[in-house]
Amino acid sequence: MTTTATYQPMTAKEVTRYVLDKQPLFILDVRNEGDYNDWRIEGETIESINVPYFELLEGVEGIMDRIPAEGKVLVVCAKEGSSMFVAEQLAETGRAEVFYLQGGMKAWSEYLEPVKVADLKDGGELYQFVRIGKGCLSYMVISNGEAATIDTLRMTDVFEQFAAEKGATIKHTIDTHLHADHISGGRQLAEKLGATYWLPPKDAGEVTFEYAALNDAEEITVGDTQIKIQAIYSPGHTIGSTSFVVDDRYLLSGDILFVESIGRPDLAGLAEDWVGDLRNTLYNRYKELSEELVVLPAHFGKITELGEGGKVSARLGDLYQNNPGLNIHDEAEFRRAVTENLPQHPNSYQQIRQTNMGKIAPTSDEQREMEIGPNRCAIHDK
Amino acid sequence: MSSAKWKSDRTAALFTTSKLLIVKNRKGIIPLTNQAQIQVDLTLDCKGLACPMPIVKTKKAIETVQAGQVVELQATDRGSLADIQGWCKNTGHQYLGTIEEDGVLKHYIRKSNADEVKPETKFAVTMTTEELQAKLSGGDAITVLDVREPAEYAFQHVASAINIPMGELEGRIGELKSDAAIAVICRTGTRSDLACQLLQDKGFTNISNVLPGMTGWNGPTSKLN
To answer: Whole-prediction pTM value?
Structure first.
């Protein structure tokens, strides 16, 4: 293949900088209309238009008036082939600063940005891994050469390398619940490193593998400085959903409570049964906790939820003031809010649950395909 | 919901988006064993090619065939499903459907001609698709003659229709009774108009052109029988 120097690759990591640093970037998304409407790169300073590549087979002249005359243009497609095809045509019109997204939306879906959340006691650290393309959040607690990961994503090498850079050995991988929107990397990482994989037993009724039962009030210690991870049984999104208080200050709320919304109870098919649990967790169980706890959820729904450096967090007391899901006082209204007019299901959520139970073992390509699209775990993720 | 209705919904869903196809995985895809042979004029092998190549090659291939001919595009890139549908919508060529066989997606595309966009009908006796549907559900003895290509017919046709492509009608006219009530249908009423004129010339006395054609048909259908 001949390459010209007139257009260049841009990695998902680089695109993430534009989003987080609020730098302007114009995106020409050449996927088909359905895929674009479903899910795309977003950000306060990101402007995008959609023209499917198959409308540009004759050239890009017809759309030049829709592309700003100055500045960088990033062409995006599903994998990268079509974006290179279109980027080349753009470059041939004499434009400078033409880029294509390396690896396409697949790479965007898989990129994780590590963000430091806090220093913990005795030199410990807490990191959040922001999967910006899909809205998933994972965590790593590091203390004295040991690490625990929470809601580990499929891209386990990222966690492994990060821990290695910090000189820590991953001893525990913990899932707050059986995920339906993404494939957990917790088991795989634990098996590879000889760590312990923890899963709430009530979500593990059908799993085909060995795991450590994560029960209410369980305490997991990371390193020898007693960084405690205290489990709080908090059902509702799933019947086993469990939250953690890390270092007495951080509430890892899984898919129960998000910054701008609350978890949906329907992904395991038992919405009606779990509404009461969800309400009890949010309106009673969490209410007993300190308002000063910093909530760190397992997802974000909108790019506006990203704060400083991309971090997604909020004070629990503030969420009781501002989060619409925590302010529905009528029980019947709450039931309606969490069971009716819910967003579309996450892509392939049934197969993802089966995979996380160990019942099916898709190839890595199939896993990647299953995870395409946004997480849609909150009731407000329209 | 009748079984025919269910089938047609299922087909519609299957052919609408690639997402659904993936969700349905192999269980939603029509088995090849009990399907009518689909006649194609050109087969295009794009197996192993990533986008945009399957569409780029289809565009070139369609330029080499005649209007009305069918191209089979074989691709392994799953994204090709939504893209070929989008491209057909965009260019006006007719997307007939897709079959999966051993991990290969076979997309069928019929090249349109300019005439079909604005059908100019000449045969005087016509009936609407609604009238035909009423007659059929009322039990009228009426033969539905579908004069589209076998590939079009295979993917969806009026439940009781027989298929004789326009190009074969003259040679196979003996299969039809000249005094039978025959409703002739195609996609948009153009080919069926020509078919009606041909049948009239051959002495058929009770024929009607169904308008607008399959594009307006909402009654029971069969497919890939």
So the answer is: 0.73
